[in-house]
Design a protein that fits this description.
This protein is α+β, with helices and mostly antiparallel strands. The protein has one domain. Helix content is about 50%, strand content about 15%. It is built from three helices and two strands; from the N terminus they run ααββα. β1 and β2 form a beta hairpin. The longest helix has 13 residues. The chain starts with a helix and ends with a helix.
């Protein structure tokens, strides 16, 4: 998506009252709309106890 589309999605999701599962490579989009992050690995799903920046930092340290 281009930046205008990302901005429009962020604005739309800010007022949406339901739940949405967002899967994206766009860190700005994820940081702007995610209330919680789910980590999926080895057949398990867990809630990550931090924001996207913390998750990214942890992944880079582990696989760095």
């Amino acid at each position: 998506m281009d930046m205008d589309s990302v901005t429009a999605m962020i604005q739309a999701l800010a007022v949406f009252k339901g739940g949405v599962l967002v899967v994206s490579h766009d860190g700005h989009l994820i940081s702007s709309v995610a209330d919680e992050l789910w980590h999926v690995e080895d057949g398990t799903v867990s809630v990550f106890p931090g924001n996207f920046a913390a998750y990214k930092s942890q992944v880079l340290q582990a696989h760095g």
